[in-house]
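Can you give me the bound-state structure? Components:
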Amino acid sequence: MGSVFGNNIKLSLFGESHGEAIGCVIDGFPYGINIDYDFIDSEMDRRRAKNAKLATARTESDKPEILSGILENKSTGMPIAAIIKNENKISGDYSNLKIMPRPSHSDYTAMLRYDGFNDIRGGGHFSGRLTAPLVFAGALAKLALKEKFDIEIAAHIKQIYNIKDKYPNNTFPTYEEFISNYNKELSVFDNEAMNKMISIIEEAKMNMDSVGGIITAAAFNVPAGFGDPFYSSIESRIAQSMFAVPAVKGIDFGLGFDFVNYKASECNDLYTIKNYNNIKKVETKTNNNGGILGGISNGMPIIVNTVIKPTPSISKEQLTLNIETKEEDTLIIKGRHDPCIAVRAVPVIEAALAIAILDLCIDMKGKLL
Amino acid sequence: MGSVFGNNIKLSLFGESHGEAIGCVIDGFPYGINIDYDFIDSEMDRRRAKNAKLATARTESDKPEILSGILENKSTGMPIAAIIKNENKISGDYSNLKIMPRPSHSDYTAMLRYDGFNDIRGGGHFSGRLTAPLVFAGALAKLALKEKFDIEIAAHIKQIYNIKDKYPNNTFPTYEEFISNYNKELSVFDNEAMNKMISIIEEAKMNMDSVGGIITAAAFNVPAGFGDPFYSSIESRIAQSMFAVPAVKGIDFGLGFDFVNYKASECNDLYTIKNYNNIKKVETKTNNNGGILGGISNGMPIIVNTVIKPTPSISKEQLTLNIETKEEDTLIIKGRHDPCIAVRAVPVIEAALAIAILDLCIDMKGKLL
Amino acid sequence: MGSVFGNNIKLSLFGESHGEAIGCVIDGFPYGINIDYDFIDSEMDRRRAKNAKLATARTESDKPEILSGILENKSTGMPIAAIIKNENKISGDYSNLKIMPRPSHSDYTAMLRYDGFNDIRGGGHFSGRLTAPLVFAGALAKLALKEKFDIEIAAHIKQIYNIKDKYPNNTFPTYEEFISNYNKELSVFDNEAMNKMISIIEEAKMNMDSVGGIITAAAFNVPAGFGDPFYSSIESRIAQSMFAVPAVKGIDFGLGFDFVNYKASECNDLYTIKNYNNIKKVETKTNNNGGILGGISNGMPIIVNTVIKPTPSISKEQLTLNIETKEEDTLIIKGRHDPCIAVRAVPVIEAALAIAILDLCIDMKGKLL
Amino acid sequence: MGSVFGNNIKLSLFGESHGEAIGCVIDGFPYGINIDYDFIDSEMDRRRAKNAKLATARTESDKPEILSGILENKSTGMPIAAIIKNENKISGDYSNLKIMPRPSHSDYTAMLRYDGFNDIRGGGHFSGRLTAPLVFAGALAKLALKEKFDIEIAAHIKQIYNIKDKYPNNTFPTYEEFISNYNKELSVFDNEAMNKMISIIEEAKMNMDSVGGIITAAAFNVPAGFGDPFYSSIESRIAQSMFAVPAVKGIDFGLGFDFVNYKASECNDLYTIKNYNNIKKVETKTNNNGGILGGISNGMPIIVNTVIKPTPSISKEQLTLNIETKEEDTLIIKGRHDPCIAVRAVPVIEAALAIAILDLCIDMKGKLL
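Here's the bound-state model for the whole set.
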């Protein structure tokens, strides 16, 4: 509950944007997993802003210090704790933040929830900075999923503002195709779409505005027959994890909301048999249900789409309320802001998916893997 | 977990479509709530098929027998258990169901998950019939929410296939406006849209096909400052509850996926002050965030949209796989089926929302209400 | 939480002593388990009063009706719901019960907790009657433990008042030796001790008084290496389950409180190797730690002792408080009462242990057993 | 689960004895609590060895660094994370520890549980060192309990080996009387008993042996009517928390196991009225039930006794098993060890109690305190 996730693993996130450190504890992480530090670094890197035109992150190293749970490069089965020190702490006055809450941000609601005692600087615990330990935890989850279950997680930007990505050959891509995008400027399949997205983001930035996006993530090789009905459906598990990501306002699976535009006879996923090296495997001809039926995996890729709203912190002048005078007042949010946080959210979404899938797998196969 | 929901309440659903009975236990339900049996009946009624042209429910009375937790028409604070006997049980042979799984249904995945031991008749525990105890639990949750918190829950059909509902005056309706639709053929605001929806459903039925829909539900009067960050965000809580409803494949809040089409300067919800009988209340001019910021309520209506996929059980001939022969085979699903389950899902979605909000409220205000 | 137990299974108890029915739902029970109805009946029987001199149970059949989760005598993996109808319901006036709370009972505390809305008749939800569904759930748990893990659960009365049972040959008995007591008047190894216990109970009954007892339960064949540190230690799990049994006021493992009388050099369990059909097995020479080290099983029998306080409902005249007059007043509790509830608690304690161990095993080995 | 405790708070413990750091995260800690650092220091101090003759702690400063959740000396409502760096880390070879497991320790069981991947040095995550962050969390819980509920927690050593403490005037002491012992050599009421205990511990130390003890803790001023039936009974909650403390092998409430020696007519707690400044308060004349009836508080002090087994690490030569040769071998545990860990466990037991009671209070009164 709160900042804690999972049934058999327990991921506990902590820290505030301008406090001493942010970090996480992962309780119940499987033992004996090889910890690939280069992979962890590369995941942390993907979350950082690469292109000054497209994102404006605080220039912090965001290097997790691992305090426990790993010995001789293998997980011990004990809680893994890691911290990331905050280098750019602000010690100045921030009382005005409480008086002039930023629109569409947590400033006002958190103030009510915590009776004004919460640390509001930079969004405090609600800051996007907390996605750094989330990506760290996700990287570990990916390592465990790969080593123990051969499950792989990837994502791409499906849409930025009105520009949509396209899949090569109109087929849902493989894991390898997904990760081949990771060294591009944006994790997008179609280069033409990518360039248009870049233009739109640059334009938003120039206008001191921001845009949102849709990210599609997939879990490959989840064995068929994993999951539960009702409240532990794979959808329920993933959704709980995804809505922890700041700015996510919607989630759907497979066709998702687009199901409304089809008749059953057009969108039902028909079963078939495929041959893989003379091993017959039951598959569906289409994957409109995103790999999940009745809350349980059917062996097809699990496909999940999430929408990231436009970063509410914009430099453009906005009206807000002065809490003290109870009158509307003009707000100018200083500092530099991401014109499209969806760009950097790709590995965060993957992390949220990986963590949910790892918890699912341990539910199914037990702690003695 | 599994068929159990909640942090401070625990709703446990049980039963199979063709077993002895279905039902639920609600642990932690508040004490002293007046149990309005007429209201419960009316909620159960809304879930049943009213119009033979639009839905084909089993003609069962679906009358919950309350076994515990209520004394002299008031909740005792003890677990409330209720059962609904299955009147139309099938005792015949059903072995063929295991051989020819229905496309886009849980038949195949549940068989793998439970190694074939699950009761597959009529979908078993995965049947839409399980939404009957869910609506019962939702009715109780609504009574508690109204009595203890003055919170009200309602929903309407936002879209069926390509037909969208419209709000009167283009404003998000009030609770009273929402419930004024409940005696219409469909819970839709715009009568013209409603009639078109009816035609589409009738056509689908005639073609032995089905269509899906989008339902928008709202929670009115949730106090500002309720909720938590991350995994207990209001979105995470509601999503976990909603994805328990069979056929739900997506959920979003406020503008939801439509956020992608806006710039922050166009969709940020600006604060303002409104006067209600000389009481000043902080509101937002728009409610694009669906009443939730940072996982916490801001006092505006909580707005949640869910998509219901077209009922996969259609009478139309479909290809499926014969599990024994490992070859494709033609499937004809006998019996009568709902051509648009979204029609009857309206009170189910409300129930899922009410239960999540009640759990939230007890988290915030405690068990000693 | 509340009346709900477990991490991977969720056992939900419901019902009141004089309501319609009592019962339980077991969510997450393993699929494919052979349901031996005779065994379930025999367990329910063990909980009933056999000897009118030693116990005074309501003469109800206490036959569980199974509503879901079992098909063709095998568990389906779906929630198992069962109800036991209350036959001896009282419909008379019970308002005086709220005015004159019985000493050492839940009457007064429950009234405060539920603001007087709880059903106080016969103890309501706090009644010992709720142990009937607990024994039912325990019987199922035992069947699953035996079939999937070869784990067996048994118990005996270790002490009644000042009379202590003795083990044959001063060795901790085997499972077979434990269950050989089940057809005796009391589940006691030493017949001399048993006869003395019977005398003491009869004397207590004659004096309109009651006595308590200590029950020792054991789980045999729990594999070494099951468990977790800290809050999911086997001790933490079992203790949470045991303290749900009414009248239990203490629990310890192995030597338990008696550890205080030893030095480490006298009570440390030294390791050794034993040969079983040429299979070498690590054991400890003594089992003072009751099969648990660091919260994790070591392969020896898990041994747990619980104390059951003297039944507080006695026929003897007692002083209590008249809540209305706020003055002390004389209370005479009518009806017949158990002079030693510990006698009938033996299968209840076993059930509480079996349920905790089953949840542990699923944690370790997963839901796909 | 695992190293995570609580329903509305989530305490997550992490770290290994010879790893980088140990620590904890407390999610859901109430906002606005004044953080008294001197009090925290004094609690940490109580856990450290004061008297070289009675205890042999690693001479580490054990100063928690707070990373999050506190701003301007007040809790923010966000997760509080704190770490304690390990100063005396061992980097040498420890492979022999895996071959020769210490009797009655977690060495062998943890090795099986984690397939040998766990950090075994100094007990790893199972080390008594982990009680340092537990005491830190307990200190915070005490501050919140005092400020928000006026609840106070204290403990004393009830027994060491065969020496029992005595209460002044044979009455259960007040909170003030309890804490007046805290500057004594041992937290014991009766000085004569204390001196005998000291002799016994010194003797055990001289003989390279160890002794155990019983600690009685109390929670004062818990309002009547807090708690739940069955699995969330106050006993179940406290027991789950207590059995997380290493070396605890038993727990009971009030008379506890001693109930077996009484008849109901002798031990039932009779109600009475007491006058406090003209305010009438319902009390019980005795408190044999330790303040809990039906799992719910009755307003009397909650009294809980726990037994701490003799420290299994003794310098005396012991037989153990050589895991490689599968033969018995002589073990000499090097280093200095506590001859009676119960001495330093007093504040740890208090912490475990405080954390359980805080979680209970938030359950009852909600997160918006």
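A couple of observations. Chain C touches chain B through 46 residues (CB under 8 Å). Chain C has a mean pLDDT of 94.
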